[in-house]
Design a protein that fits this description.
The complex is a heterodimer of chains A (306) and B (190). In chain A, helix 6 (113-130) packs antiparallel against helix 8 and helix 8 (147-168) packs antiparallel against helix 9. Chain A has a three-stranded antiparallel β-sheet with strand order 2-1-3, covered by helices on one side. Helices cover 67% and strands 8% of the residues of chain A. Chain A is built from twelve helices and three strands; from the N terminus they run H-H-H-H-H-H-H-H-H-H-H-E-E-H-E. The termini of chain A are far apart. Chain B is mostly helical and 190 residues long. The chains are: A mainly alpha (306), B mainly alpha (190).
Chain lengths: 306, 190
């Protein structure tokens, strides 16, 4: 008979005697029996409850340990995952490229246009050589991304022409051309760095930027920008530039803008037009035009017809 | 129930203890301690006298075992647990009543092997010594000793037969056993 049976009340007979004799040689058992005899109550329930609690406690602690280890493991995986995503993602590449571009922009440009062109060629070539065939198609270069290459000869032309006019024109013109040239050089170098480092996206943006900054290249004619504009000078200047824009059909663009305190155009509105291309060109030229001779705050309305 | 209670394995105390020490996983310790809860709880009842205090002490003791088992080299878990549990109870008593003194009763002392002197006495000399010593015992002690050791009656049976209280029966048996042992050792010149 076990202790539990004895506690339950089976205290008669030989089995009980056997346990009691055992207790004579086992102090632990003897004192336990004395305890059960000293306090009369339903001890079986208490014992079962205590056993359950102890077992649960030990299991819960084990599970808590497991949860702790699993959460640590999950944390490590998460950190590694996010880290690797940041390192290898295109976003990160773009960020790196932007940083590099920033450093390129910060360096002073002392090169001439032709030197820049040579550098551009070299870099593009080097880039193309380094790009793996698999990367070329979807990621770095698409049809549009290769456009900067097409622009290059035109860019060169413009630069060369600026150099030619420098000898022929007066000092002011030369200064302007120099400024223009420097701007173009800067843009070219920007584009070089961007194309070389990032490819598709940045190259596209840089291309658009470069094209915008350059004089219109619809004609291979060099235009001399007047010092200041009034309605008449502007009309002459613009019409001469946009002469062939609408082909044989007549072109008409009616624009309106206000001269700000510094006498530069602002709030340009197109009232009437029959050519989208001409409109864009008009807006572009007006917005990048030099100071106007009309008074500040004056509303200027112009009908450009040719 | 959220947690399924595992049935007690057939692992020995030593195996469970070793597993706990190796893994520090509390599951084997819980299983080992659960085996001794009836004994520990009874011991705590004896010293603390109150059921809920005894229950608390059993749970507290488990918490102390978690560390103690790892720190100590335990040869016999049951004996070690008895000492630790008893000390824990005495500590609680000291906290509650600083002037507490433990009564060293006969029961605490008389745990030495005695049975070999009265059981299987094929030896004639031993039998004679036994008879002589039994005659020398007081009447109440003699009756209780005879019923308990020779007729295999339990305490409860003796209570029923004699009408003595349980405490008296235990006391008569304990004292009678001690007197008999002393007498026999003298008689047999051991």
């Amino acid at each position: 008979m076990g202790l539990i049976e004895y506690i339950k009340g089976k205290r008669y007979g030989k089995d009980a005697n056997k346990l009691e004799r055992e207790s004579m040689e086992d102090a632990f058992l003897q004192e336990a029996l004395d305890g059960y005899d000293a306090v009369l109550s339903n001890h079986i329930d208490s014992i079962e409850r205590l056993q359950t609690e102890i077992t649960q406690k030990s299991i819960v602690k084990k599970q808590r340990q497991h949860i702790f280890y699993w959460s640590v493991a999950a944390g490590v995986v998460l950190v590694l995952g996010v880290g690797s995503m940041l390192i290898f993602s295109p976003l990160c590449e773009e960020l790196i490229a932007k940083n590099s571009q920033q450093s390129v922009e910060d360096t002073p440009i002392n090169n001439t246009g032709s030197e820049v062109s040579i550098q551009y060629d070299t870099l593009v070539k080097a880039k193309q050589d380094n790009v793996k065939p698999a990367e070329k198609k979807p990621l770095l270069l698409d049809e549009k991304a290769e456009k900067p290459k097409e622009v290059k000869p035109e860019e060169k032309k413009v630069l060369a022409k600026v150099e030619i006019t420098k000898d022929k024109k007066n000092v002011d013109t030369t200064r302007k051309a120099k400024v223009k040239s420097t701007q173009e050089q800067k843009i070219s170098s920007e584009r070089l760095a961007e194309v070389a480092l990032t490819g598709k996206t940045v190259a596209k943006a840089a291309h658009a930027k470069a094209v915008d900054a350059m004089p219109s290249i619809t004609e291979n004619v060099v235009f001399e920008t007047p010092k200041a504009f009034d309605k008449r000078t502007f009309k002459n200047y613009f019409v001469s530039r946009a002469k062939k824009m609408c082909g044989d059909s007549p072109c008409e663009v009616e624009v309106e803008f206000v001269l700000n305190n510094s006498q530069f155009p602002s709030g340009i509105k197109v009232k009437k037009t029959n050519s989208e291309e001409a409109t864009q060109e008009a807006i572009r030229v007006i917005s990048s035009s030099p100071q106007w001779t009309e008074k500040a705050g004056e509303r200027v309305k112009m009908k450009l017809k040719w | 129930m959220i947690f399924k209670l595992k049935k007690h394995s057939k692992e020995t105390d030593e195996e469970l203890l070793l597993r706990y020490k190796e893994t520090t996983d509390q599951e084997p310790l819980g299983e080992l301690y659960a085996r001794y809860i009836p004994l520990v709880y009874g011991l705590c009842l004896k010293y603390l006298k109150r059921q809920h205090e005894a229950e608390d002490a059993v749970m507290q003791l488990y918490e102390t075992l978690v560390d103690k088992c790892l720190k100590h080299d335990i040869a016999n878990f049951k004996s070690w647990l008895y000492t630790v549990a008893k000390n824990h109870c005495l500590q609680i008593l000291r906290k509650n009543n600083p002037t507490f003194f433990e009564e060293i009763s006969d029961k605490l002392v008389e745990v030495e092997p005695f049975m070999h002197l009265i059981v299987e006495t094929n030896d004639m000399e031993k039998e004679k010594a036994m008879e002589m010593c039994l005659e020398g015992l007081p009447k109440a002690q003699l009756r209780c000793i005879k019923s308990f050791f020779f007729e295999a009656c339990s305490y409860a049976d003796i209570v029923l037969m004699t009408g003595y209280s349980l405490q008296k029966v235990k006391s008569y048996i304990q004292n009678g056993k001690r007197n008999l042992k002393t007498c026999m050792i003298k008689a047999l010149h051991l």
